[in-house]
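Might I ask for a little of your time on a matter of protein folding? Here, with my thanks, is the record as I have it:
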Amino acid sequence: MNIGIHYSNHQWQLPSAQTFQRLKLTRPECIKTCLFTQFGFDQAEMHKQLRREFPQALIVARLFAPMGGGPWPPDDFARQFQPHIEALKGVVEWFEVHNEPNHERNVEGFGNTQAQFEEFAHWAARVLQILKHNHPWAKWVFPGQLVDGGPYINFWKANLEVIRQFDAWGVHCYWQFENHTSREWGRCYEIAHEMLPDKPIIITEFGDSTTERRPIDKVRYYREWYQAVDRHPYVLGTALYILGGTQDWINRPGIPNFDVIEDMARSIGDLPRQDRHSVPNGNPPPPPPPPPPTDLQPGVVSNQDIITVFAHVSTQLGFGQWELMGRAGLSLGELAAHRQAVYNKGKIEALPGLNDQQRRLIIAELVRRANLRSADEAINFAFGGEVEFLPSTGLLLRRSELMGIPLEPSRELQINLDQANTALEKRTFLAWNRYGVALLAIADALTLEPAVVVAIVASLSDRRGLSPDGRLLIRFEPPIFYEKWGRTHSDAFDDAFQFDSAQPHQGHRWRSSAVEPWQECHTNQQSEWAAFTQARIWDETAAKLSVRMGLVEIMGFNYAMLGYQSVDEMLAAFATHERFQLFALFDFIAGESGNSRRLNALQAQDFDTFAALHYGFSDAARFSVTLRGLAETFNRFNPIPVD
């Protein structure tokens, strides 16, 4: 949902038909709006219109309070917005709490001193507490900051513990001249991500504030910026500032012209969209599991059940609230008009437009909610009958209970790297500190000793699966691309790629055209991605099949045996979270049956047999010694409390 727009911020006037038409031209995946306590039009109906027109879009409504006279008391802020938030229930789920608190105090912020940063932290914590209590169904976004070229980082640091409590971090990205690529300006979302890597980010405003630059001249900067941010799955949405509401100040001297003109809207609409795999809480969704073992019969749930569950699963998978209902051919208006009526629109299994993963999650959520029969339930679920929901088996990828596990153990369970006196110890400690929680879950799922699982990952050396900017780490293999595509397109391949036919693992080079000089493929990640990108020009699928992915460096052509329906699905999952890379490693070891000879050897801690099967007989002795040493090292320093 990275290609988005900031809708009109006019407090007293409904956006014009022309503004709405330009919004449609942008094909927004994210729409940022403002919600006021005093207004001159039906703002609830405006949001409903947006939801009807853009059922897939992530809509973020800012709770905007004019604070030029000073901050509103937290209780007063929450009380005045309460009816307006509730009016959007079922339409908008995400709300940004205020705007640019680090702005000067007499504008709309709390101020730009350290004491005022801390004042806002206390205010935001109290407001969030009240909002969560009053609206448990909603999700909350920490407000975007005034972009001032770097000092805002002190504001972020003062509020870091409060930001952790929000569901997402709102970030503003503005620039002048060529600063759209600067980390302090146009790419400051990267700094935020480094400060809190697990916190999803929504860029609630961005734009080119160069005063002498015309809107039409900003188009190329916006397209470049969109394409750059689109590579970061932790960014859930963006909002280009601004579509409408600028009439009062757009032509004032010295004020940047942020108006989104029609040509700009068309250009944004022409940008390609990705199939999104990130979800609002920052945890990636499970890739498609096997077909559901059973189904729910019509007549056992209410229309309200279907509305609630579809909305929940849809947002869990990173879509708009009503995306899955739309795909399944269900009418929100029709079901909502008869909320407590018995659902009779057909079996979940028979609904069109859903894949097996989506059906399984919908069924699981219906079953889960049906078992919560208590007076505390916010909605009366009319679930009836018995449904057998079988636990998932086989590949780790298909075990729903593993999908939400974190990676790092808590700080008190991490091993101090200062204790490492050898390279073996350092590798062991790093593997545990980075992935310990996931490794314990994998060990439990495969009946392995934790030390064995840690040893397998530690044997990969000090590799990571994602670079600091969130991009998947890869290694592009020209010999494989030759087999997958180049053999039947030899002239084109020879113009673009080279490798040593006598020793195919050597001499890997690429170039962008026959007149350009040859470049090494494996110099760094920039060169790997450049070679990969060149291959994708010729054949997208063959290029992906020819890539080693993530910390485990598994080739793309292994996607089917690892449980993926396509190499695109595997690449997207690996790029979303290192969790899926770890699953792939151990699914590769265990096999689809979950009972391979390699797994049996590890269960018996027979490193000699495992090394021979996994690495080959020529390297078995060396790897067996290494794995045994890594496992023994972890057992010596094991931080897991003993019952």
Notes: The longest helix spans residues 423-446. Confidence is low (pLDDT under 50) at residues 276-300, 370-393. The two ends are 46 Å apart (CA to CA). The chain is about 40% helix and 10% strand.
